[in-house]
Write a structure and sequence with these properties.
globular; Rossmann fold; 302 residues; single chain
Length: 302
Amino acid sequence: MDLRGKKAFIAGVGDDQGFGWAIAKELAEAGAEIFVGTWAPVLKIFKTSWSSGKFDESRKLKSGQLFEISKIYPIDAIFDKMDDVPQEVKENKRYQGLDGFTISDVAKAVAADYGSIDILVHSLANGPEVTKDLLDTSRKGYLSAVSSSAYSFISLLAHFGPIMNEGGAALCLTYIASERAIPSYGGGMSSAKAALESDTRTLAWEAGRKWNLRVNAISAGPLRSRAARAIGMIDAMIAYAKANAPLTKDLEAEEVGAAAAFLLSSKASAITGTVLYVDNGMHVMGMAVDSLALKKTEAASG
């Protein structure tokens, strides 16, 4: 895929482990110019790691060159404008020295710096009560999960859409908990992912008619990223998927990156409003083949 001359903004890159990084790298491999939005509280750590060479091995492209990020913007996607930011957040030491980190401010900064973009990626999710059962989730925790993990995509597209070139594309990342019960994936995160997928379809219609943009989602399998480790049972989720999916292998972030690059390229020019599963086929399964119930049945019949 040839993305030379294209400009991509990826919101949600804070290290070299997650899907956001993998997508940024794959887009760079195809020739796109990369800008990223990094969660404001980890901005300093990310920039230090980048400049110190900590990510150099992960930055290597097939050519051996290191992929570049043209600019790193601080972002906190639960805020649309600075007036929304509580005073205690502004005074928090992790936000000291930062200004213009809301979605509208970042969109304005990107427009001022580069004029327009072609690609927008939402790689953001946060649920402060993700380890709680849904029945134990507070209203505040639930709404926070939906705000940061789902509404943030609406806001990003609403603010970046006007500076995106016609024929451009936007992408978000979801998870199968949007449509299936995943015990321990709580705190309203399953609800947020369901909302995100529904919004993807509606945004495909609205952004398609308004700006001639495509909007899609990737439902990725579990990955042992820094963010996923907050769930507390990511290793068990990975082991379960590997034991029960049609393809019995670990999911690699690069596989999601490659699928994203396709959806964001002109090769997918007629694809919009779609959720593409990149999960080794786990979404097609209706039975856990490693279930103890099956083993007991086999033992009884044997």
